[in-house]
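The instructor's notes for this session suggest beginning with a concrete chain rather than abstract definitions. Hand out the sequence below and ask the class to guess, before any prediction is shown, which regions might be ordered.
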Amino acid sequence: MFGGEKKKSVWKMEYEDAVYKIYDWNRNLAAYFFPNYPLEETSENEDEIIDKLNKSHQSVRGGSILFPMVKLNILDKEEGIDLDYAIFALEESLKRIQTWKQWLLENNNKYGIVGNSVYTSREDREMLSIALGIHSDIVLGEKETLATLTPLLDGLHDSGLL
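After discussion, reveal the predicted structure:
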């Protein structure tokens, strides 16, 4: 009763169009996971192959997980912004990016992270997203994939990055 219970994951996952969407406990989109599908030259349609792999809960070797990293809050302003505000916003963004970098340096091996890339979000030009390359065996399927990624999600959340 006290401390003996297994902690239930607060994360939820939905599979849609070859991508896994990860939501937090408030149903906010927290990340996208893109598995490394083993697509070989065949006459079969790629979408059909991917669908079969997911339905049969096949194992894949890693993938990429995309997270929001920092909101810049300086772009696309119809009115000009104050220079001091621009400096402040960029300094705050830099602190957040440095926090991500430090976390990655300390946790790459623990979570099987083999690389990272930063992108501008397609939905929000103010948002920079970070893609982490994961190199571990992952069983496809919402429950199975989420079980594998939960330690990484929890680690990022505990560090204030999610």
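Then share the key points. The chain has one domain: 12-158. The beta strands are 12-16, 19-23, 29-35, 59-71, 113-120, 127-139.
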